[in-house]
Design brief:
Blueprint lengths: L1 H4 L5 E4 L4 H12 L5 E5 L4 E4 L4 E4 L9
Parallel strand pairs: 1-2
Antiparallel strand pairs: 3-4
């Protein structure tokens, strides 16, 4: 399924895991192929403790555009 989606879509992994954990999981899924365009781990989050929420920083997507 990922192989079929990759030519038409940017596949992005959002996770609350650390960068190292996220990459390990993605590497297991990809098994030598490159399905995912971005991995957005927990270090790309802003924690708003007053609101008790975690917000993903999507600026990572605009660097090359």
């Amino acid at each position: 399924m990922l192989r079929a989606l990759r030519p038409s879509f940017e596949l992005i992994v959002y996770t609350n895991k650390s960068k190292a954990e996220s990459e390990a999981i993605v590497n297991t899924i990809e098994n030598g192929e490159n399905f995912f365009t971005y991995i957005v781990p927990s270090n790309y989050c802003y924690n708003l403790t007053s609101e008790k929420v975690c917000i993903k920083d999507i600026n990572i997507f605009f660097g090359n555009r």
